[in-house]
Amino acid sequence: MPGLTQSVHESGTFKSKKNRISKRGSSYLRTALYQATVCAISRQIHGPRNSILFQFYQQKRNEGKPAKVAIVATSHKFLRIIFGMWTSGQAFKMG
Description:
Elements: E1 10-11, E2 14-15, H1 27-41, E3 43-44, E4 47-48, H2 51-62, H3 67-88
Antiparallel strand pairs: 1-2, 3-4
Helix pairs in contact: 1-3, 2-3
């Protein structure tokens, strides 16, 4: 997924612990996905708007990931859900 993949810094046995998302792909699409994910996992008056994405976000946070790293991982999952809906031609089902 261009733009949401992490850039990996490795050389021999060295593996960097600070990997950032790559800047390939559309910055507008990356921003739109990030903002849509934040909106989907935000808790308003009645809880999160999308429980599937919120549970995935909470799982990443419980693993010790920082908030922004967890949001980018959730954005990647959101993009996979959108792609699956697009290829199958089916509407999203909450569960």
